[in-house]
Amino acid sequence: MPSVNPYQAASPVIDDRKNLAFDSVIESSDYAALLPHRDLEAILIKILFGLLVFMSVVFAAMIIMALVLRGWHESLIPVAILTVVMMTGTAYLVRYTRAGQRSRGKLKHNPDLLSVARGELTELGIAFYDGTRQHWFGPQYLVNTVVSDVGVRVYVDQNPYRYLALTSRMFDSYSVKVAERLRQHWCDQAAHATDPGVPAGLDAWTALNPMPEDAIAFVGTVTMTQPMRTPEVRKIAIIESISILGMILIGVICNGADLFWFGYAAIAYALFALYFNAKRWWQYFHGTSVNAWNQRGWISLTELAILMGSRGVRMPLREVGNYVDHGSTLEIATSEGGTFFIARDHVASDADWTQMVHGCRAIVKHEQLSR
């Protein structure tokens, strides 16, 4: 019989899986667990929190020393007001230093990030079903995906706080090494993709969304010039304006309390920020952005499947809330606020184009009558 060395190290177990399946529901705790902790917003909040704590302590100490040495004086009123304001700001910021509170604020504006989560991570991308729509994310779209022991953070657009929070509990058997290997595979494919019209992993998208016989296919490039007058830009501009007014107020109060250096610094910062705030408002009222992307897909009597760049979605046509026929372009708007554009030259014939427009008209009319 062959002898067995009891002191020989056990052979390492190699997990060579090429996919990770998940089937669960994304909850607020999952989103909070994968919330970025070292992003610019979190860093700025911590810096501002630290400054407010420091200045609150300094000003409170100044008031106490003044009361002990010479008693109450009217000159202490501006300092006392400023101290109360800073302490109030400190108490307000405390909740934003916690991931749970920050995540609740983000999810309040992005409730769609909490949904059914069913699909898998493969070498060709990620298939994700949210209970209504079948999504697909290709390698080029996934290069910024974050993998950790906690799970996988899959960004759904350029907003760093809009992501699918696939935590480890949602997987059948999560392995950070397998997830890292898959992510590296996506990056390698994206780096070697040469034709922008044919995204990496296109075969996986096609297999996931086979075109029915009655469907109309479309393929082409969309170029859109869009105004920057959006709620997001307006919100940022308003917050900046309020911050500038607050710094000017602090500067005036500090100068009135003979704290000239603090006052001058606050006003100088406000004037510096005013320049960028003015540019932000100009962008909001006059700015435009040009976006272009390659897309392909099909539309049938019941579904719309569209692949934009390396991200795709297939949805029931009952989700179409409205449509606008611009003559050479068909604009399709979903009930959740999404918008898709299909150009006339993206389809094979005039008959297909007419059928597509009439189909959208019939769906919208049916949905309006059924409400």
Key features?
371 residues, alpha+beta, PH-domain like, eight-stranded antiparallel sheet, three-stranded antiparallel sheet, 9 helices, 14 strands, 24% strand
Could you please describe the fold and organization of this structure?
It is a single chain. The chain is elongated and about 90 Å long. A hairpin with a 3-residue loop joins strand 5 and strand 6. An eight-stranded antiparallel β-sheet has the order 1-2-3-4-11-10-9-8, with helices on both faces. It has a three-stranded antiparallel β-sheet with strand order 5-6-7. It contains nine helices and 14 strands. Helix 2 packs antiparallel against helix 3 and helix 7 runs antiparallel to helix 8. The chain folds into four domains: 92 residues, PH-domain like, CATH 2.30.29; 69 residues; 91 residues, PH-domain like; 56 residues. The model has no long low-confidence stretch (mean pLDDT 83). It has 371 residues and is α+β, with helices and mostly antiparallel strands.
